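The instructor's notes for this session suggest beginning with a concrete chain rather than abstract definitions. Hand out the sequence below and ask the class to guess, before any prediction is shown, which regions might be ordered.
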Amino acid sequence: YCHGKPDPNAKPNKNAIVTQKPAFVKSTGNASLYRAGDGEDAFSVVHLYGATAYEVGYNHGVLMRDDMRAFFPKVFAYFESQFVQAINSTVPWIPKEIALWVAEVFVL
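After discussion, reveal the predicted structure:
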């Protein structure tokens, strides 16, 4: 438990506080998914419970499947672009096609 105090020099959080009630989206076995917020400020609230870590992880995956399927291609595209940029700035004579191939083989 935290027994400390906030840093007196800490930057204050001026983000709006979401006060709306999260909306139920779906449930499975021992878990429920809710969404709150609007637009780019929307976020998921996942309520998980279970007898084993496997059960909790499985239900988390079932509920967040669509989000993860949308998220991972974006993340890997970003990693690939960063990798290619790093290769091209370190070894600029490598053709872009080779850098992309290396990124696909070794990053993904």
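Then share the key points. The first strand starts at residue 23 and ends at 28. Residues 36 and 42 are 6 Å apart (CA to CA).
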